[in-house]
Amino acid sequence: MDITVIIQDKEKEFIDVARDIWSYAETGYEEFKSSKRLCDCLREEGFEVSSDIPGLPTAFIAEYGSGRPVVAFWSEYDALPGLSQKVQPVKEPVTEGAPGHGCGHNLLGTASLAAAVAVKELIKSGELKGTVRLYGTPAEELLTGKVVMVKMGLFDDVDAVIGWHPERLNMVMETPTSAVYQAKFHYKGKTAHAAVDPWNGRSALDAVELLNMSANYLREHVPPGTTLHYSTITEPLAPNIVPENATAWYFVRAQKRDTAKSVYERLVRCAKAAAEMTDTHVTVEFCGGCSDYLPNRTLEKYLHEAMESCEPISYTEDEMDFIREMTKTLPGSLEASQAQVRNDYGINVSDKLICDFFAPLSETKRKTCITGSMDIGDVSYVVPTAQINIACYGYAIAGHSWQVAAYAGHSVGMKGMLKAGEVMAKGAKLLFEDPTIIDKAKEELKDSLGGKPYESPLPEGYKPF
User: Fold this and answer.
1) What is the model's pTM?
2) Which has the closest alpha carbon to 60: 51, 48, 69, 70?
3) 3-177+293-449 and 179-290 share one CATH topology?
4) 205 with 427: CB under 8 angstroms?
5) Where are the domains of the chain?
6) Gap between the Cα atoms of 149 and 53, Å rounded
7) 3-177+293-449 is classed in which CATH architecture?
8) pLDDT in tens, 1-51
9) How many CB atoms lie within 10 A of CB 421?
10) What is the fold, at CATH topology level, of the domain defined by 179-290?
11) pLDDT, tens digit, for every residue of 416-458?
12) What is the 3-state secondary structure (H, E, C) of the chain?
């Protein structure tokens, strides 16, 4: 059976799923309709589906086949707050203030569904032997869903994991991502009249400001690639009232999990010192964390081979018109993206608005680190993991934007989604056919870890919501 034909035959089914999830636009741990839509489709396709994951009501695990190898894909389907957007090149929400798929997870989740279904068909026909799984992983934007599932041991018997993300390029993702620890520091003080008796007050806002000042000084003394960013949350107050409550919400990112953890622990000490100085009380609410992503070169080479076996995406004139109009909404972004492609791959795309080629493997890209974070990092610490990017929008794009939400509901995004499913399924097929690839990938992971066991960023008893 041909994977390309399998996905083409079910194209309408997959597009319908992606459009439904796009319309639901549910945020992390609230993806009830999106999760159910995927589960219903998987059951219709003959998968055994378990959605009874303790503490994660919108997670699921779907499986088909038996025995080894066990090759898995992951599905994401959470939207972002405030990014509701119609499928048009003019900013206009479907519903003002509502969530929208500004990271394209409706496409991400459905392409993984397509890949799993295609592999299932090959197992069903007897062409492949083993087990295919699809993990429904909620709340990726909160960077905790997969971390919780790894801590529960749900990936322990998997041999290899393949995934993807919508992007501006068709490429294998060779780049590590940053680890992150995040927490809210809630300060409790005492109100007083700021003019009449301020000495009787204890300012929670003073404590937050001292924490922020400490963090600013701390930035000089952390390893390269480490960042601290924050927001301040206060109740509406008049200036003549000493603030009783105030909160600082911090993210600590670093190229390695151990570094992020160490800097986070120093930040906690800063927070406690600020409370001591202001005679206030601080409560530390740990909001979660995730590990850095460990690329696996062994798997990446075979994913790249699978990618090159596919035909590039072609676009209609109407689709190109849409891309042209979307490009106009982000002045300067096109040139910057084109320059990045030239720097990373040595390819001149100055006359292109959208990627129309499969990028080669790049040692330049491999040596960099993405400053953002992904909760797949924790999976990559316990199972050999590799992923691709497929163009679902033009070069001129900003992540987590209304433009991405528009593309995610458009046929341009849907074409990228279907291509991603095809590439991932072909990559998985290579692993089923030659299990020695998995053996080599496991050895690479073992070498990357250097004998150090995986340590979850999440403390015992952690609850994601």
Assistant:
1) 0.95
2) 51
3) no
4) no
5) 3-177+293-449, 179-290
6) 9
7) 3-Layer(aba) Sandwich (3.40)
8) 899 999 999 999 999 999 999 999 999 999 999 999 999 999 999 999 999
9) 29
10) Alpha-Beta Plaits (3.30.70)
11) 999 999 999 999 999 999 999 999 999 999 999 999 999 999 9
12) CCHHHHHHHCHHHHHHHHHHHHHHCCCCCCCHHHHHHHHHHHHHCCCEEECCCCCCCCCEEEEEECCCCEEEEEECCCCECCCCCCCCCCCCCCCCCCCECCCCHHHHHHHHHHHHHHHHHHHHCCCCCCEEEEEECCCHHHCCHHHHHHHCCCCCCCCEEEEEEEECCEEECCCCECEEEEEEEEEECECCECCCCHHHCECHHHHHHHHHHHHHHHHHHCCCCCEEEEEEEECCCCCCECCCEEEEEEEEEECCHHHHHHHHHHHHHHHHHHHHHHCCEEEEEEEEEECCCCCCHHHHHHHHHHHHCCCCCCCCHHHHHHHHHHHCCCCCHHHHHHHHHHHHHCCCCCCCCCCCCECCCCHHHHCCCECCCCCHHHHHHHCCEEEEEEECCCCCCCCCCHHHHHHHCCHHHHHHHHHHHHHHHHHHHHHHHCCHHHHHHHHHHHHHHCCCCCCCCCCCCCCCC
